[in-house]
Amino acid sequence: MAKRFVFYFFGFVLLASLAYYGFHRWKDSQSKVNLWTLVPEHAAFVLETNNHTALVEHLQATELWDSYAMIPVANRLEESIAWLDSISPGTERLTRFLDKKEILTSVHVVGKSELQYVFYVPVNTVGEHRFLRTLTENVARSTFFKDESREYQGFLLTDIQNTATGSSFTYFSYHNNIILSPSPVLIEEIVRRINRGKPTSIAADFKSTNYLSQPDVYANILVNYRALPELLGLFVSKDLMPQVRYLSSLCRNGMLELKLEQNKLFLNGFSNPEDLKDSFQNRLKPDVPKPLQVRKFLPNRTAVLFHFGAGQVSRLRELPRAAGTIYATTLDSLALTFRQEVALDFLESYNINAKPEKVVFAQSANPNLTLALLRKLSNQVNTARKLTSHTEKHGNYAIEQLNIPELPEQLFGKLFGGFEQSYVVQLDNYLLFADEVSTIRGVLDDIASDNVWGKSVTQKVFLEETLQEANFSLFLNTVNAWYVLSKYVADDARDALLQQASLIRRFNQVSVQFSKVEKQYYTSALFRRLDNNEQGETGFEELAVVPFTSRLASMPYPVQSVSDRSREILVLDSANMLHLVSATGDKTWSDSLGSDIRGGVRQIEIGEDKKLHYVFATASRIHALNGQGKQLENFPFNVSDSLRLQHLAVFDYEGNGNYRLLTDDNMGNLYMFDMRGNAIEGWQPRRLDYRLAAAPQHLRIGNRDVILVLLENGYVYALNRNGDPFPGFPFSLRAPITSAGFARIGGDLRKSEVTVVTRYGEMVVFNLQGQVQKREQLLRPTKSAMFELVPDNREKSYVIVRQDLGRVTFFDQDLKQLFDKQYVTSAPKQIQYFHFGGDRKIYAVTETGPQKTYLYDFRADLIGDRALSSQQPVTISFNESTERYTLFKVFRRDLKKMSFRL
What we know:
single chain, 20-stranded antiparallel β-sheet, 54 strands
């Protein structure tokens, strides 16, 4: 009896223990877990959604879903989900299971080289448990999957591999939640995190923030700025990582809401400042956010802009390099004069190997004091180092050279490095710094022609949707920045960049901004798509036809109205009558020339009133006409009735209106005159004994004037004002040449480079000391293949063109083939290249025999799906406000004005 009692007693204790254990396991499983506490702290982003279907639908509408699916890890996961969906039980589907759940997705860098995800999915009902159980059983029976379970620190992990695709993922269950990832490493890390007990939520700073309760919000996004550099390091080259780490140290974390529209993606919320020593936050120490006032000077060809708004921008400085030098005090005083805003602007590049032009705009509280201190600093440095600086005029501006290495970095911090020397010009209450004088000239030209953000309709619309005041802003135009991105992207990520080219270019306007609000930063990011095809048809619209009594014999020469600077056209007919056609299509005046025009038409400003005049050459004369078509005093210049002029170059050495007219004849003789008809010594003539391949080019290098002359026999001359060659010239390219060179102006003759392409397809780069820097041969498939370099309409970039028995092939500046086309005749084609910034590129090919002009966009698609009847090259302009192109062409006796979109 006693033995039986003992047996029953131990049995009761065992059953009670099992019941107690089971009850607590059941209770634990029923207790709700804060999924945020499971996320590893090194997550760069965490996405929280509660309407999976709606989010996917909107992503698909903006075409972002297709791009996401192309990422390798995402692609593999999508394929696995599709396979799982195919074996889901009954009529249930994973999309239905995932819908209306608060799901977390964390993004991580694994092994410092791989991007991975973790998904945290709650299982809320008995039906959902049944669905997962049946799905698991189907996986075990399926021949498409191979599953294997293993125990890890008290948790059962299941690895599933898709035998068809080779992709795999790992998952485990925890408190009615499924934790799943393609990375078993991350799953095991989460298990260890659970076992350590009472994990802290990565979103603890935002426990009372939930944007999902607001309308039209599709996700909460936690940003871990401390992990951001590691993530960006997968895509950015090592050279840029110090700057990436520094800029990321403005904040430590943030919680943003995600909103989607058809052509926009918004991220708005708040971020907490970073409190680590030497962080960007602790250097900037911003107070009141500042507006983007510098927009009135920012060129439309801006690729990347960093804008800093703070009361005293000199706080960005580190220990100045000038510490302990004789000019340290002056430098410190100069730095303190800059207030409110400073901007670092990277301009559009035209090939992957080119160093991007960059400009610094710094606002001064007292421009006169700033300029005085700057000149004092320059004099101190020049005296100490026995150097000299020069000043050059460009229009109404004085550009000053500063022989102070890394001056912007010493004034504004390490983000502003890379200025071996500086050129500076004053614009109202801003000082503009650049490391090349040609960069400043280009920006001043953009400002003079209103090609700036402050005048751009497209840019105004974009800026209206961004924060109007901020302490730090990053603006990116992905189209303008394409070559900059390609240059600085990590080698491993370059292929992915090319694969995503269409999407990246489509969402071409991007802003990321931080604006101080009490103890946080209001944070805003905007990705905006500008799709020209949404604005209307892409065919040609005929706007006007201007008939003439004689056949037209020249291309339409684009000029500006002398009264209101509107677009007008000069055109020559077969009777050698020159006609001016106004913007409204009226014939304003006509003038008999007696010969055809050689080398195009230039417009120059003459006199105190800066009135525009027309300058051009005919067979033996140089003409200058006023706005009414009347010859100016002393014109035309009669060079010689026995000569046949080829080209005319017009330039102004000092920018003071004292123009020089340089022309050449068919014997290779150069003649130079001033505007009164006086022959310039050394140029009457300057004999070169062979015809010129293109018009002479005037280059301003520091305080030197260089006249670059290319001869058809391949000889290159660089001449000074007196017509004497610079040291190292002439030299031979060893092959004939028939097109102009493309010059990149540097700080001196050694750093200034010219690119030419020989007739036989060799690209040669030389500097203005006569030293060949590079030679590279393009593929020449047959002996009949001939090459030329074709600059764009703004002379800021170029393409290389090969013609071979009716086939025309275009190459970019990196010698990468863009496209090729076959035409009816084998006769040489007339090639034009128009580039209005970004992807606004037009390639024009004119066949003089069939009298057809073919226009192609940047994708090499035929614009309007048809050729245009045209016997001469065309003229094209672009209206940024309407996103429309205007084209003028001549055919027989008609001048036609047409309009189209890309």
